Amino acid sequence: MSQPDLISITGGWEGYRVAKTTSLNIGNQKRIEVELVPLQRKEMLCPACGGQCKGVHETIKRTVRDLPILDAQTYLIVHRRRFLCPQCGPILEGLPWLGKYSRVTKRLADSVARLCGVLAVKHVAELFGLSWGQVKDIDKRYLEQRFGTVDLSGVEVIGMDEFALHKGHRYATVIVEPYRKEVLFVAKGRGRESIRPFFEKLGHDGCSRLKAAVMDMNGAYEEEVKANCPQAAIVYDLFHVVAKYSREVLDRVRNAEADRLKDDKKARKVIRTSRWLLLRNRLNLKGDAMLRLQELLDANQNLLTVYLLKDDLKQLWRFKRTEEAELFWEQWYRRAIESKIPQLELFANRLQVYLQGILNHCLWHLHTGILEGINNKIKVIKRMAYGFRDHDYFFLKIRAAFPGIPR
């Protein structure tokens, strides 16, 4: 058996045979060129209508890439035929192993796309000897085929959160189905107009079916949910409320106490450098860290008060009955107001407005933990790609990372 015949059998280029092979060395790179000519067929069927074609309108040469043969880059010179269909006119012959206008074979595209799921585009491009743009386009087409459309039927609960798109306070929004851990929608921006297309895709029936939405205290998210799904319960997440408390109460009280002790440089330095000590969960502190925290709180009444009330605030999300949670809140709110600490009083009064969304957690035990996990994964995706200029491609990568648990 000749070399061309052997390559034809192993190559799997259905409908074609190898006319000639050429081995080249270009620099340090080995290259194989395989010229493919079409086999004679009794039937020439139109790929559009399926009808019998009259004959061949013309034959054109096209160079495409295939999977490497051993360590050599493989180029196919394909003599592609354009059939003459009585119904459709001149039309390019359909091949099971090559797309209509593709410059790479389907199996090479599949291999590239699979590797892009675990490697950076740059590294996949280097592996196959393709350009960054070629690999990105292949991967994007693959992702569009698999994740370009989302099945929103049956969605009753959603989670919403923002993530940093670029440096400089530019953000995007991700919407997920928290039970299935599926990303449903990603959009540039974090305003009402950014997430409105999601509710348009959800449609009237889908909006009427929505029962709850968990989010941080983002007024734009809440307003858009209420405008489209007035029956849906708004649920505020513990993580974001406690993070807000840490920024607006703990940090500000700590700074105020440090300023108050400006004449005592040693005490002022201790308070100034205690930020992470105060923010960390007490259960995670050991040894010297726990001792330092205890000494700090014993020496400063205001810091002790806001620190203890932060821990107590977390308890609000552990209740399963609304009445018990509401009673606990009243007690917590009274203690905050009676503390006479301005930063704490201000926070408590502001939080009072969002009470219903906190109490709804008793009915809907939802949290944005899955969203925090998504945000961490997004950071990894950005690092692997060294940032994304094509937002649609970036958002498809996010959807691919969280396709959801099958129903």
From TrEMBL:
Where in the numbering of this chain does the Transposase IS204/IS1001/IS1096/IS1165 DDE domain appear?
158-398
Q: Transposase IS204/IS1001/IS1096/IS1165 helix-turn-helix domain: which residues?
A: 95-142
Where does the record place the Transposase IS204/IS1001/IS1096/IS1165 zinc-finger domain?
43-88
Transmembrane feature ranges: none
Pfam families named among the record's database cross-references: DDE_Tnp_ISL3, HTH_Tnp_ISL3, Zn_ribbon_ISL3
Among InterPro entries, the record links this protein to:
Transpos_ISL3, Transposase_DDE, Transposase_HTH, Transposase_Znf
Name assigned to this protein:
ISL3 family transposase
Q: Which organism is it from?
A: Geomonas anaerohicana
